[in-house]
Amino acid sequence: MSIDAPRVPPQRAANHGEVANTIRVITLGQFAVLRDGVEIPHPDWQSRKARNLFKLLVCRHGRSVPREVAADLLWPEQPGPPGNRFSVALSTVRKVLDPSHRHPADHFVCAEDGAVRLRCENVEIDIASFLRLSRDATVAVSRGDWSRAEDLLRSAEQLYAGEFLEEDQYVDWAVPCREEARSAALGVLRMLAHVSQSRGDPLATVAHLQRILELDPYDEAAWLDLIAVESAHRHHGEARRLHTVYNLRMLEIGVAAAPLPPVSMVGPGVSNESFKPLPFRDPKGV
């Protein structure tokens, strides 16, 4: 689950007249739209507003957005009826997704009753797949089906290449979707850490706990588990260093930090109160 997302390699289209019927949207770690496996070049969007309209529709997960609401979000400096500018942006989005008009106009983006929505049944979106895998893994864990849960967790981990729409960190309408994905990612990592811990794999456990803290540096449970793992394997210097950083993070949010466990309390194969299985919480919003 890398925080630095790999870029989509450029590809050249080889159009032999086939119907363009596959649209894949990448939102985790970067934003890219692939038409039949080929990334749509940035200039094809013609305007930032058209690109942002499509992103907004992706954020809505197929739910309708009234034209007036969309216009207010995309053109906050121009209040009032959406007018022609919204129609132009919508037309541009449809043209980008289906430049040869091989589908009905509403095949990818439907406009009806004064609202627009993305027809998700005709579009593959990574965040939708990621959230579905996370939910299914949580259900599998609740049923004790660890084999299925681990397969789902590994697939989810691969999909979460970074935060949702990283290039739009300061866009308010992207925040709910970003937080939903981050919460789900934290849940996936907690469960993977538990799996690694149960198997006696400290390196994998530490890696997953560190990734949790990359996403949420104030996750006290992850700090305490990480410190306990290092102490349990007699990495006392690393445990002390981590505890110092943990203290600083808790101080930043006004939380009293737990003391560093005495060396005598921990060691390989020795039970420690703070070194216990991670809780399986249904990630918020998932």
Structure, explained:
This protein is α+β, with helices and mostly antiparallel strands and 286 residues long. The chain has 2 domains: 100 residues, Arc Repressor Mutant, subunit A (Orthogonal Bundle), CATH 1.10.10; 141 residues, Serine Threonine Protein Phosphatase 5, Tetratricopeptide repeat (Alpha Horseshoe), CATH 1.25.40. The protein contains 9 helices and 7 strands; from the N terminus they run βββαβααβββαααααα. The protein is elongated. The two termini are 18 Å apart.
Name the descriptors:
about 290 residues; alpha+beta; Arc Repressor Mutant, subunit A; Serine Threonine Protein Phosphatase 5, Tetratricopeptide repeat; 2 domains; four-stranded mixed β-sheet; three-stranded antiparallel β-sheet; about 10% strand; disordered N terminus; DNA binding; TPR-like_helical_dom_sf; BTAD
Helix/strand-derived category reads: alpha+beta
In terms of DSSP E residues, the strand content is 5-15%
Mean pLDDT: 86
- β-strand number: 7
Strand order of the biggest β-sheet: 3-2-1-7
Major β-sheet annotation:
4 strands, mixed
- Tally of structural domains: 2
What is the name of the CATH topology of the largest domain?
A: Serine Threonine Protein Phosphatase 5, Tetratricopeptide repeat
Helical content class: 40-55%
Task: Specify the number of helices.
Answer: 9
Report, as a whole number of angstroms, the end-to-end distance.
Answer: 18 Å
Shape: elongated
Rg result: 23 Å
CATH class of the largest domain: Mainly Alpha
> Could you spell the SSE succession in H and E letters?
EEEHEHHEEEHHHHHH
- CATH H-level superfamily of the largest domain: Tetratricopeptide repeat domain
Q: Which segments are poorly predicted (pLDDT under 50) over 5 or more consecutive residues?
A: 2-17, 264-286
**CATH architecture name of the largest domain:** Alpha Horseshoe
